[in-house]
Specification:
By secondary structure, the chain is α/β, with parallel strands linked by helices. It has ten helices and ten strands. Strand 2, helix 2 and strand 3 form a beta-alpha-beta unit. It is globular and about 55 Å long. It comes from Sporormia fimetaria CBS 119925.
Length: 316
């Protein structure tokens, strides 16, 4: 995976004025976002969604989609990610802290959620991967209706949609429904560790989302100091999933790419995705589950940075 560049931000401390979220009205009218929603559709149905802007607070303040709340994505720690054991990067956030943050932000489990950030491009797909990482975290945490704005904020502006400036005008609240988070937890059937992955070698499909030169051992990344890939893993690079503008390709093209790598397998086939530290691997997980409909996809959050501390890689 290319060197990851992130904006250096801290969570916003702007307005805490609270107002009911728009999509708490009629439950029967709540939409189920597609994996990627076009700005035109959002502009026509904006009040039905809880919008989460993951860009830095200064960037958000300079201009954002009206009504969006700002929950920045920032490395090494933020609402969306944490440092794991032995300082592993991009690990899932601590469960209690995450759900507390979601409750305080007014992001209830029954909301239809749309995430957006910077669009990035073919040369810098990490911008898109960060947005997908947030969407994946919400899905694994039990949020069922989660989508991503196609093209990000840049496309929203380019298409002449309304832009709001300044701090947050208000966040939703869930104090009136304290039971909303009762029993919420991470889906442990999705999150797997190194020993599970080791047991899956030769039994299930392992997909490495890193660049081909890293997968083949020609380049060694700083966070995984052994060349190559996990034994038996096949390579489906994150870069192959996006077009020249940095948007994810359409479903037909994505299905063709997956079929070329693992064959035309059934939707219940067990697949585990990983990458260097968990960014690209989470994007691949989201594509497989939310776009292509695979039902049994695992995510190795520790990825290569964790694996190389205990096991060897292969370069064949």
């Amino acid at each position: 995976m290319p060197t990851q560049t992130h904006q250096n931000t801290k969570p916003s401390s702007s307005s805490t004025t609270k107002s009911p979220p728009a999509n708490k009205s009629n439950p029967d009218s709540k939409p189920s976002p597609s994996a990627f929603l076009h700005p035109t559709h959002l502009s026509r149905n904006q009040t039905k969604y809880t919008l989460i802007d993951i860009r830095s607070p200064p960037t958000y303040t300079a201009g954002h989609i009206p009504g969006a709340i700002n929950i920045p994505f920032d490395v090494p720690t933020c609402t969306w990610i944490s440092l794991g054991p032995d300082s592993l990067l991009l690990e899932m956030p601590e469960k209690k802290e995450f759900f507390t943050a979601m409750k305080e932000a007014g992001v209830a489990p029954d909301h239809a959620i749309l995430v957006y950030g910077g669009k990035g491009n073919k040369e810098l797909p990490i911008e898109q991967a960060n947005v997908i990482r947030v969407a994946m975290t919400l899905k694994v945490a039990g949020y069922e209706n989660v989508g991503v704005l196609k093209g990000g904020f840049e496309t929203w502006v380019k298409e002449g949609k309304e832009v709001e400036r300044g701090g947050e005008k208000g966040r939703g609240f869930v104090e009136d429904n304290n039971d909303a988070f009762e029993g919420m937890s991470y889906d442990q059937s999705v999150l797997v560790g190194r020993d599970y992955v080791k047991s899956a070698i030769g039994r299930a499909v392992l997909l490495d989302a890193r660049d081909p030169d890293v997968y083949h051992g020609e380049v060694v990344e700083e966070w995984a100091e052994k060349a190559g890939h996990i034994p038996s893993a096949k390579n489906l690079p994150m870069l192959d999933l996006v077009d020249e503008l940095g948007d994810f390709k359409d479903e037909e093209d994505l299905k063709r790419l997956v079929d070329e790598v693992i064959g035309e397998v059934g939707e219940d086939t067990e697949i585990t995705t990983y990458c260097g530290v968990g960014g690209y691997g989470s994007a691949l997980w989201f594509v497989l589950t939310s776009i292509l409909g695979f039902k049994n996809v695992k995510f190795y959050d520790g990825s290569a940075q964790d694996w190389v501390r205990y096991y060897d890689m292969e370069t064949t």
